[in-house]
Write a structure and sequence with these properties.
3 domains; mainly beta
């Protein structure tokens, strides 16, 4: 057991029959009345963020979680298959647990968050940026670059991304996996 004095960003705990991670917290000592702690908590099962206030000294139930590096292998009807890069054990996850499954390609490294006591996967995060090759896009028309116009482009995983008009087939681009937006064109 721990108390509110042990709060730190990233701490995971059982709260209201769910796993929550502390995103931010603030100890408050008003001039009148007892001290308390304001927190922002993120549910590790649903991704929902809530605000909660704890009275100072309240006992909490911390949970140990581990971040492990896995390599993406393939997906089929049972889910997305990953291999641990240290001991070569394989695991599979449903699509709902993966932050941006449309940007996964074979061999990519991902971080999977595990509940250490139960050996249960909680979430799967891709790196913030991935490099992809444009497999199909309409050719840009010369002189159309005066505005921030975009066009659809299909990338090697089959996903569609909005890109600037100067991007052509075969170009390598960097994509932000958190938003799914084009970031920059890479030099060949």
């Amino acid at each position: 057991m721990a108390t509110t004095a042990d709060f730190k960003n990233g701490l995971c705990m059982n709260f209201n029959n769910d796993l929550y991670q502390i995103i931010e917290f603030q100890h408050v000592k008003p001039g009148k009345g007892p001290a308390f702690v304001r927190t922002k908590l993120k549910s590790l099962t649903s991704g929902k963020i809530i605000d909660n206030t704890f009275n100072s000294g309240v006992k909490i139930d911390p949970v140990r979680i581990e971040n492990r590096t896995y390599q993406y292998l393939y997906n089929d009807d049972s889910g997305y298959h990953f291999m641990n890069t240290e001991n070569y054990e394989q695991t599979f996850l449903p699509e709902a647990m993966i932050s941006a499954p449309q940007f996964l390609k074979e061999g990519d490294k991902v971080d999977i968050l595990f509940h250490a006591e139960e050996e249960r996967a909680l979430s799967c995060d891709l790196p913030p940026f991935v490099e992809m090759e444009v497999t199909y896009t309409e050719p840009g028309i010369k002189g159309d670059t005066a505005t921030n116009a975009t066009k659809p482009a299909k990338i090697e995983t089959g996903a569609e991304v909005r890109v600037p008009l100067f991007i052509n087939e075969g170009d390598r681009i960097k994509i932000d996996t958190r938003t799914g937006a084009y970031s920059e064109r890479l030099k060949s």
